[in-house]
């Protein structure tokens, strides 16, 4: 059974068709990347999976049951980390927010916060506020806050789009390591074709107006992946060219 399934899903908002005939299953532990031009409904797709939007037709299921609202075991990592974090709370305090929301035992919170800060390499910055952290650190912190929920699913909406290339690559590898270690299922939205291939077990390209699935590529690149050797493999370069050709075609 698929962990998440979109079954002939349509979405209309304000009388406008946003998504049509979305039909896809995401398996437990899968890393699914979704790419497409701006306005094709990628973020709406993620919001449907999160239970933040309800389909106009069809249904979205989680472990076989229809999604009717947000769930604790599904966490969202947003692109705009600056707005996602509470500026008046320290790094520790931002992680504590997730633990408070799920009524995590008070006597265990300090230990759990320390574990998560260590996991993302921010142990030395526990008492700093978001504006005292770099963009990469802030995004790490947002990911740690999501992981505090012990999610089975991570929904990631272009989380590295605003970061410099080196920080982006570092966080790509951290997300892959976290997914491998926790067994989390990941739905990853991105504009970056190389990022989609590097991270994914599968890549789906979308067509706009209204948003719909155009083509799906299975990524048979060995894991663990490496920023240099993986990207130099002939299979990677072939996939990049094929995906580029698809996106170029659907944009016109």
TrEMBL record:
Q: What is this protein called?
A: ABC transporter
Task: Indicate whether Transport appears among the record's keywords.
Answer: yes
Q: Which Pfam families match?
A: ABC_tran (PF00005)
SMART domains, alphabetized: AAA
Domain of life the protein comes from? Bacteria
Keywords assigned by UniProt, alphabetized? ATP-binding, Nucleotide-binding, Transport
InterPro entries attached here? Answer: AAA+_ATPase, ABC_transporter-like_ATP-bd, ABC_transporter-like_CS, ABC_transporter_ATP-bind, P-loop_NTPase
Similarity field: Belongs to the ABC transporter superfamily.
| Record SUPFAM superfamilies | P-loop containing nucleoside triphosphate hydrolases
């Amino acid at each position: 059974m698929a962990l998440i399934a979109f079954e002939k899903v349509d979405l209309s908002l304000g009388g406008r068709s946003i998504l049509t005939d979305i039909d896809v299953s995401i398996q437990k532990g899968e890393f699914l990347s979704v790419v497409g031009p701006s306005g094709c409904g990628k973020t709406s797709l993620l919001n449907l999976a999160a239970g933040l939007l309800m389909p106009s037709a069809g249904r979205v299921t989680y472990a076989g049951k229809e999604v009717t609202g947000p769930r604790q075991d599904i966490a969202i990592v947003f692109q705009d980390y600056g707005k996602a974090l509470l500026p008046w709370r320290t790094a520790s305090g931002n992680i504590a927010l997730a633990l408070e929301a799920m009524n995590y035992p008070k006597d265990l919170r300090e230990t759990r916060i320390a574990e998560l800060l260590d996991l993302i390499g921010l142990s030395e910055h526990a008492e700093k506020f978001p504006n005292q952290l770099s963009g990469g650190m802030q995004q790490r912190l947002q990911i740690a806050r999501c992981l505090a929920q012990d999610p089975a699913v991570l929904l990631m909406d272009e989380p590295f789009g605003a970061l410099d290339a080196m920080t982006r690559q570092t966080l790509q590898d951290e997300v892959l390591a976290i997914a491998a270690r926790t067994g989390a299922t990941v739905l990853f939205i991105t504009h970056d074709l190389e990022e989609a291939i590097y991270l994914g077990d599968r890549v789906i390209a979308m067509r706009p107006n209204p948003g719909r699935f155009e083509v799906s590529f299975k990524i048979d690149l060995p894991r663990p992946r490496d920023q240099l050797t993986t990207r130099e493999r002939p299979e990677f370069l072939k996939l990049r060219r094929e995906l580029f050709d698809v996106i170029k075609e659907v944009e016109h």
